[in-house]
Write a structure and sequence with these properties.
Layout: E1 2-6, E2 67-74, E3 82-83, E4 86-87, H1 88-103, E5 107-114, E6 135-138, H2 142-150, H3 161-174, E7 182-188, H4 211-225, E8 228-234, H5 248-256, E9 269-270, H6 274-285, E10 294-297, E11 306-310, E12 313-314, E13 324-326, E14 333-337, H7 339-346, E15 352-357
Helix pairs in contact: 1-2, 3-4, 4-5
């Protein structure tokens, strides 16, 4: 018995995970899949040396929907604050540029900055200027977005979140690309401090009730009403621990934005946890199901008869530890991979997962869980 699930580890295909077809007796017709069992080339309906009946297999393709993602990048003066080994700007720029370059094949990215530097009236040059996106939402433009983020320096001005979100709304209202899965990714190091009219103002405060925050929250609600969700990426030291204080506005914007991954506070992501944001990209932007660490078996199995390998390297049988064990949550049986091995699978660091029985059979059923990644 051989159960094999293939994942493409190349960056360009990270968001193209195929669905899984389980072939059992009465299985579906299939094409473009190696029907060999234990290296034996057999026709459908015949048996191998162990008496397992060979069935045809069907490859189920899963093509996740594309997404429009407009990155709204905070280039206000406070983004020059020291953070880690560099500045807040450098940390956010590195993370967002990597995301745009990594997922550009399946996510249509665009770029907008605040405060803006394009087409602003002189009365708004105090640092509350809001501009339209400078890089339009389009496919395969990761390089353009990364270049725009790099050109955001020097950091200067205030944080006109409300007016910038309004400009993003106006952009999406005119965008007709046939994609309904739409987002604004707001990357900022603090609460808004400009009103919608473009005047400097206090931010949200502990109750997120300041005029600048109230205006921004209204624009988030307007975006959601248009079908555009808002993801908030907080940039700063300890920002995730202060959702009820000065960062209450960020939490309110994130929760109103309709893209919070899990209930509770804070609702925003932080640049100090890039893995969490990567999960958001994979799960939300493209509607992607991450590679599973739980593999279904077609019949009851004995752990002493199984070998589990990642990219050809056997991993240990370790119930309660790091490796694999049988999981009774699936009927008739399942194999669960755990610990760092599961982490490798979920982060697309594994080309293929193989579960193989020593004698080549699972009862009289040969199984091949085949994945095709276009």
């Amino acid at each position: 018995m051989r159960v094999q699930t293939r994942y493409n580890s190349s960056v360009a295909r990270k968001l193209k995970l195929a669905g899984v077809a389980l072939c059992m007796l009465g299985g579906l017709a299939c094409a473009e899949v190696d029907d060999s069992i234990n290296s034996e080339a057999l026709d459908a309906g015949s048996s191998n040396a162990q008496g397992c009946v060979v069935l045809k297999k069907e490859v189920a393709k899963f093509d996740p929907p594309q997404a429009d993602v407009l990155i709204l990048f905070d280039r206000s003066g406070s983004m020059d604050t020291a953070f880690g080994s560099g500045t807040r700007y450098q940390a956010a720029a590195a993370l967002l540029s990597d995301l745009a370059l990594t997922y550009a094949a399946h996510v249509k990215f665009g770029y907008q900055e605040m405060p803006g530097r394009q087409g602003c009236e002189s009365s708004f040059l105090c640092g509350c200027c809001a501009s339209a996106p400078t890089v339009g939402v389009a496919g395969n433009n990761g390089q353009a977005v990364a270049a725009a983020i790099a050109a955001a320096a020097p950091m200067d001005g205030n944080t006109p979140t409300a007016a910038s979100l309004q400009a993003a709304l106006a952009y999406y209202e005119k965008l007709d690309d046939g994609i309904n899965n739409r987002f604004v990714l707001l990357a900022t190091d603090g609460e808004p401090n400009c009103t919608l009219a473009g005047a400097p103002s206090n931010g949200g405060g502990p109750n997120a009730s300041g005029p600048a925050c109230t205006d921004a929250l209204l624009e988030v609600i307007n975006l959601v009403a248009l079908g555009v969700r808002v993801i908030v990426l907080g940039v700063g030291e300890g920002i995730a621990d202060d959702a009820s204080g000065e960062n209450a506005c960020l939490d309110a914007l994130a929760n109103a934005g309709g893209a919070v991954a899990s209930p509770g506070s804070p609702g925003f992501y932080t640049v100090s946890n890039p893995q969490q944001l990567q999960l958001a990209v994979e799960r939300i932007f493209g509607g992607v199901t991450r590679p599973s660490c739980l593999l279904p078996m077609p019949c009851s199995v004995d752990e002493t008869n199984l070998v589990v390998s990642l990219d050809g390297q056997q991993i240990p049988y370790a119930p309660g530890g790091v490796g694999w064990h049988l999981d009774g949550s699936l009927s008739p049986a399942g194999v669960r991979i755990t610990g760092r091995y599961c982490d490798m699978i979920e982060h697309f660091q594994v080309g293929f997962v193989e579960v193989r029985s020593v004698d080549g059979c699972c009862g009289n059923i040969p199984v091949n869980i085949a994945v095709n990644i276009p």
